[in-house]
């Protein structure tokens, strides 16, 4: 009976996930590239550590550094903003530096990899410091879950940096045979975590308006309203009631800011200061109100959910309970017309 090394089996699983994502055509190219890169890295680990193909040794650290870069760029492209040649092209430098270090100064290779993983993990966490308001390209309904999942990705990168330190320490203190086992085991876990989280629908599918053009931008240089400007909130309230923008299940911070010709950060900060809520919860108040109106008029709960801008029943139930204090069915029992 032929037994495959765990990293090679992992590579096959990741390759299958990447091919499946391509065939289904519902995943961004950045996510597919990240999962494919994880598959390549796992295969390289297997071939190098278990089959003695040592000429692949330079590929292993370079691919590891590239995974950290791709994880961060995927986060930006799917959640924050479209990628730009400048400054995002500069992120090619870490893998190049690792390649040069492998041949010119291998004693610093582990340090460089630790810095790369720790740096990109920290960069994602810093970007997420404003919570769901940081994710301008994510559907408002799923933005809070996306924050959690991307924090998990950042945590995986930081844990990988810590893992490299522990592996290096174990190699110094233990026998030479410990290296293949530790590297294989830790790398497999890390690659699977990154790939599976990245394939989650919440983080893998940016809203269709991702590349929508419009007059407003988070990088707008024009003077925007102050965070506590009551005119902005009045404008937003009027827009919500006149256009019913909250009924759009693909509504994002960027799309709403462009509809109002208001910079994204000003919009989210104004809502936070005026209402004490983030934008997703503010929008969900309108959606729940609309759903209640439909249910009182005779619509079923399920019909009201999808007619009010929600994509999932679970999120609707959670928000309904938060705002009304009871389940939709219990609320409806007390609000049926006579």
Automatic annotation (TrEMBL):
<feature type="domain" description="HTH araC/xylS-type">
    <location>
        <begin position="230"/>
        <end position="334"/>
    </location>
</feature>
<feature type="transmembrane region" description="Helical">
    <location>
        <begin position="89"/>
        <end position="105"/>
    </location>
</feature>
<dbReference type="InterPro" id="IPR018062">
    <property type="entry name" value="HTH_AraC-typ_CS"/>
</dbReference>
<keyword id="KW-0472">Membrane</keyword>
<feature type="transmembrane region" description="Helical">
    <location>
        <begin position="59"/>
        <end position="77"/>
    </location>
</feature>
<feature type="region of interest" description="Disordered">
    <location>
        <begin position="207"/>
        <end position="229"/>
    </location>
</feature>
<dbReference type="Pfam" id="PF12833">
    <property type="entry name" value="HTH_18"/>
</dbReference>
<keyword id="KW-0804">Transcription</keyword>
<keyword id="KW-0238">DNA-binding</keyword>
<protein>
    <submittedName>
        <fullName>Transcriptional regulator, AraC family</fullName>
    </submittedName>
</protein>
<dbReference type="InterPro" id="IPR018060">
    <property type="entry name" value="HTH_AraC"/>
</dbReference>
<keyword id="KW-0805">Transcription regulation</keyword>
<feature type="transmembrane region" description="Helical">
    <location>
        <begin position="6"/>
        <end position="23"/>
    </location>
</feature>
<feature type="transmembrane region" description="Helical">
    <location>
        <begin position="111"/>
        <end position="128"/>
    </location>
</feature>
<keyword id="KW-1133">Transmembrane helix</keyword>
<feature type="transmembrane region" description="Helical">
    <location>
        <begin position="30"/>
        <end position="47"/>
    </location>
</feature>
<feature type="transmembrane region" description="Helical">
    <location>
        <begin position="148"/>
        <end position="174"/>
    </location>
</feature>
<keyword id="KW-0812">Transmembrane</keyword>
<dbReference type="InterPro" id="IPR009057">
    <property type="entry name" value="Homeodomain-like_sf"/>
</dbReference>
<feature type="transmembrane region" description="Helical">
    <location>
        <begin position="180"/>
        <end position="199"/>
    </location>
</feature>
């Amino acid at each position: 009976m032929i037994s495959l090394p765990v990293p090679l089996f992992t590579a096959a699983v990741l390759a299958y996930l990447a091919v499946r994502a391509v065939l289904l055509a519902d995943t961004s190219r950045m996510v597919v590239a990240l999962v494919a890169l994880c598959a390549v890295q796992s295969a390289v680990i297997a071939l190098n550590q278990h089959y003695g193909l040592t000429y692949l040794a330079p590929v292993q650290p370079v691919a590891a550094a590239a995974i950290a870069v791709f994880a961060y760029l995927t986060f930006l492209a799917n959640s924050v903003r479209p990628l730009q040649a400048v400054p995002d092209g500069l992120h090619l430098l870490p893998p190049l530096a690792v390649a040069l270090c492998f041949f010119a100064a291998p004693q610093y290779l582990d340090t460089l990899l630790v810095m790369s993983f720790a740096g990109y993990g920290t960069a994602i966490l810093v970007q997420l410091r404003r919570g769901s308001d940081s994710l301008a390209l994510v559907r408002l309904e799923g933005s809070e879950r996306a924050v959690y999942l991307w924090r998990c990705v950042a945590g995986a990168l930081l844990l990988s940096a810590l893992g490299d330190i522990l592996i290096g320490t174990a190699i110094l203190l233990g026998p030479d045979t410990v290296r293949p086992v530790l590297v294989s085991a830790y790398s497999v876990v890390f690659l699977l975590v990154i790939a599976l989280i990245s394939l989650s629908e919440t983080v893998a599918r940016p809203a269709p308006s991702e590349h929508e053009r419009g007059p407003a931008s988070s990088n707008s240089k024009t003077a925007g309203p102050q965070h506590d400007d009551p005119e902005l909130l009045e404008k937003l309230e009027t827009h919500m009631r006149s256009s019913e923008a909250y009924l759009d299940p693909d509504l994002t911070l960027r799309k709403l800011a462009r509809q109002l010709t208001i910079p994204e950060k000003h919009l989210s900060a104004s809502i936070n200061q005026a209402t004490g809520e983030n934008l997703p919860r503010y929008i969900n108040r309108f959606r729940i109100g609309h759903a209640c109106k439909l249910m009182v008029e005779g619509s079923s709960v399920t019909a009201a959910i999808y007619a009010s801008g929600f994509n999932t029943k679970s999120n609707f139930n959670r928000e309904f309970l938060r705002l009304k204090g009871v389940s939709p069915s219990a609320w409806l029992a007390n609000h049926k017309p006579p």
